[in-house]
Amino acid sequence: xxxxxxxxxxxxxxxxxxxxxxxxxxxxxxxxxxxxxxxxxxxxxxxxxxxxxxxxxxxxxxxxxxxxxxxxxxxxxxxxxxxxxxxxxxxxxxxxxxxxxxxxxxxxxxxxxxxxxxxxxxxxxxxxxxxxxxxxxxxxxxxxxxxxxxxxxxxxxxxxxxxxxxxxxxxxxxxxxxxxxxxxxxxxxxxxxxxxxxxxxxxxxxxxxxxxxxxxxxxxxxxxxxxxxxxxxxxxxxxxxxxxxxxxxxxxxxxxxxxxxxxxxxx
Length: 267
What we know:
Elements: E1 3-6, H1 12-23, E2 27-30, H2 35-44, E3 51-53, H3 64-75, E4 80-83, H4 98-126, E5 129-134, H5 147-167, E6 172-179, H6 203-206, H7 211-223, E7 228-231, H8 235-245, H9 247-259, H10 262-266
Parallel strand pairs: 1-2, 1-4, 2-3, 4-5, 5-6, 6-7
C-alpha cells in the first residue's frame, strides 16, 4: 500500500484524508503544527502503527530540506504528497493590511511550492509519484472578501498545471482539487483585515460538504488518474462552469452580491 504525506493533517480535509488512507491499509505521514491533534488523528484511525507524526511549520523554508529527509526515511520512499495546509481570509481589500496578503500567499502558495520543489527530485528519480494540490473554487473564480486567498489559490492551480505538463512524461501525476464549502474550521481560522483570526464560521461552511465525503472523492479521483476535480454543490459548483461559458454574467452576479450587502452580512 502506498505511503502518503499529508500537510494540514490535524483537522478538516487533511484529517479525513489521513484517516481514509490509514484505514485502507496505507502508511501516512501526518504533518501540521499541533502535535496533540496529529496524534489524535492517528489514534482515531484503524492503523495508528502505520502513521508517522512529523510536525513542522510549512512556512519554515530553511527547515524543509531536513523535514523532507525525515519523511522519506520513514519508509524509504513517498508515493503521494498532499499539499493541504492552508489559511483563508475574510476582509474587504480596501481594509486589508498588506501583511495579510504576505501571510496568506506564503502559507497557501509559496509553502506548497517550496515543499513540492524539494520532493520533485525524489519522484523524478524513481519515475513515479503523485502530488495532490488542495486549491479551492476560489482558485477559479474571484470571491469577495477573499482577495488574498483567491490570489494564492489561483496561483497554486497555475503552478500545478504548468508543472503537470513538465513531469507527466516522467511518471509523476498531479491532481488539483478545488473544493467549495466544506464543514471545517476554515472560516473560524480565517484571517481578517488586520491579520487576526476571524473566530466564527459562515453559514455556507456550516452547510457545506462533509470532510469524509470530500476525502473519499479525492482518493477516488487519484485512483482514477484524474487531473482536476471540483468538489462543490449548488451555486459554488456552477460558478466555475459559468466563468468558462459566460464570464460577464458571472462578474455581474458577483458585483450584484456585493451591492446587495454581501460584505455586511458576512461581518
